[in-house]
Design brief:
ArtM/GltK/GlnP/TcyL/YhdX-like, transmembrane helix, single chain, globular, MetI-like, mainly alpha, MetI-like fold
């Protein structure tokens, strides 16, 4: 194999002004972080709400939560992203459509569509984790809260959720890293995130091995950093006697 290695390719000129290829990689990483962060915020809010609904005594609330999980977990992520990018904007009011198509840049509108789709997809997984965390608590917890005069919202806010989230921190760590890794699929709806920029640089330079190696290292370092941070939070918040707690 007669291949000319060039590990300094990221520091070469792109031919567009004074930009270097590393600037494209940094821009792609920025879009990736933005998509992942927005999607994670959506997932945590919606996942928590529907996770609570799945544990309420009200049958209608439980049915709504179950329907959400069943729907979003059984449709491929890519299909959902295509829906939010190609179909959903057509359902907006004319004024919002004008803003969406004319005022927003194509990359920004694609980023928002990808963030919404990824957030709702990830939320369906968090619903189950929140439900599992709440149901793993002893029944005496909720009964004691009612005995103290707490309403249902107060019981969840003050008693159940603080303990449940400590229990589910390890699986939440996995979902967090998955959320940012799945953000790479946004390149298929036009977002110039890290994978898309990597492909572009590879085509421009023909140094595919080096470029994809750098992208792999970026993903690896970023996700390992997330895992380390979540591990630190888990150790700080663990409760002795619970699933995620120390037995000491």
């Amino acid at each position: 194999m007669n291949y000319s290695w060039n590990w300094g390719v990221l520091f070469e000129q792109t031919g567009i002004g004074s930009e270097l290829y590393i600037h494209w990689m940094i821009t792609g990483l920025g879009w990736l972080l933005l998509i992942g962060s927005i999607a994670w915020a959506i997932a945590m809010v919606i996942g928590t709400i529907f996770g609570i609904m799945r544990t309420l005594p009200n049958k209608t609330a439980r049915a709504i939560g179950t329907t959400y999980v069943t729907f979003f977990r059984n449709i491929p992520l890519l299909v959902q992203l295509f829906f939010w990018f190609y179909i959903a904007p057509g359902w907006l009011t004319p004024s919002i459509q004008e803003w969406w198509y004319k005022d927003l840049s194509p990359n920004t509108s694609a980023m928002l569509s990808a963030s919404i789709g990824l957030g709702l997809f990830t939320a369906a997984r968090i619903v189950e984790q929140v439900r599992t965390g709440i149901e793993s608590l002893p029944k005496g917890q909720i009964n004691a809260a009612y005995a103290l005069g707490f309403s249902i919202p107060q019981a969840y806010k003050e008693v159940l959720l603080p303990q449940a989230f400590r229990i589910i921190l390890p699986p939440l760590s996995s979902e967090l890293t998955n959320c940012f890794k799945n953000a790479s699929v946004a390149s298929l709806v036009g977002v110039m995130e890290l994978i898309s920029q990597t492909k572009t640089i590879s085509e421009y330079t023909q140094n595919s091995l080096e470029i994809y190696t750098y992208a792999t290292i970026i993903y690896l370092v970023f996700n390992l950093s997330l895992i380390a941070i979540m591990g630190l939070i888990e150790r700080k918040l663990r409760v002795p006697g619970l699933i995620a707690g120390s037995q000491k």
